[in-house]
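Field notebook, page 378. I keep forgetting to write these up properly, so this time I am using the form the group agreed on. The chain and the ligand, LD2JLWAY, are recorded exactly as supplied. Prediction of the bound pose follows.
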Amino acid sequence: MNISQTLFTNTDTKLDNSQKRSRLAVTLGDPAGIGTEVVLKALADPQITQNLDITVVGSKSLLQETYLHLQRQNHQNSDLLIDPAKLTILDVPLDRSIESQIIMGSGNAASGEASFAYLETAIARTLEGKFQAIVTAPIAKSAWKAAGYDYPGQTELLAMRSHVTKFGMLFVARSPYTGWTLRTLLATTHIPLRAVADTLTPELMSLKLDLLVECLEQDFGLKTPKIAIAGLNPHSGEQGQLGREEIDWLIPWLEKERDHYPNLQLDGFIPPDTMWVKPAQAWYGNILEPKKPTIQNTADAYLALYHDQGLIPVKLMAFDQAINTSIGLPFIRTSPDHGTAFDIAGQGIANSNSMKVAIALAAELAQQRQNLPILTMQ
Ligand SMILES: NC(=O)C1=CN([C@@H]2O[C@H](COP(=O)(O)OP(=O)(O)OC[C@H]3O[C@@H](n4cnc5c(N)ncnc54)[C@H](O)[C@@H]3O)[C@@H](O)[C@H]2O)C=CC1
Ligand SMILES: NCC(=O)COP(=O)(O)O
């Protein structure tokens, strides 16, 4: 029996290669972006694909076309691409008229139509039980909108099709320097900055915290986690001088949550600019300060109150390493942290590491959940 260590989940569960192979769907995302390229590169890596049953979901003809195009780029130092003939593909054929309007490097209604159809197909098959996890390549929300699909992102479509109203966007990244794992949940996601303060409520904060606590225990084996929570305003409001949300309701909310979760360490509200100093030190370890031991005292997870508050630090530290995972769904969903990168699409220079770790985390969670009851977080 060949057993490999878990990378992300801190659990006693080891990946046991003699067990049933995890069944993963990998969607191609927007065909005008780098999705197909990062999928073909990730699936060319045997360390990623070993012992997995992977089905690529997308248009077979476009996949073949993109493969041939990328091969012609023949970039030095570029990762290898797998030949699509070696893949299991769930073909999502597109109308000729749609396919002919797809232009590499520029998302439009046709590319949005395609990426929407890929995800719809993957979700439907997963809900039927064909797959345990969906790994999604990036889509452009603007292309979906141009095609008439008005969703903030893939997360919301996944939740809606799963009939789930309580879900969250969690970013997970394991430092290649120190092995430390950064976990960041966003309390609000794809809304205008102007709407953040009004969207945040005690109910929403409790919903996100409950999801995070349950996910940390079930998926990451952390029963009594320490969670750091960012303030909303500069300096967390500076006692009301720079914003009143902390004083008016966030601090009373946190006191109630501490009563509700007496075994957890809930640290808040940490000034949002300084909250990321310790994670960065833990991420880079001795690279930043060679004489200093790796910082301890970090949190198991960070709760950011809005998109850029959480994702600027995640992407600064971990752009090629971070995984976007949707929590609260009845199945596993992971995705690279990057977008469609239209500016480099078709050039053969896209880095596939984030896609590789997204597949690795999906596989690890799938393996682990085989022995666990299905999450019920409603
Ligand atoms: N999970 C998803 O489906 C996501 C989708 N998006 C979508 O992607 C589109 C473009 O968003 P942007 O903000 O421009 O972010 P982006 O991540 O697509 O690109 C930002 C910069 O990083 C570079 N980059 C991104 N991924 C790379 C990779 N794998 N290798 C090398 N360079 C890479 C790009 O060339 C660009 O310069 C938007 O429509 C957005 O909605 C963005 C983030 C996640
Ligand atoms: N910034 C994260 C992001 O855009 C992910 O969106 P999605 O996975 O919901 O499509």
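OBSERVATIONS:
- The longest strand covers residues 52-58.
- The domain at 168-327 is CATH 3.40.718.10 (Isopropylmalate Dehydrogenase).
FOLLOW-UP: compare against the apo run.
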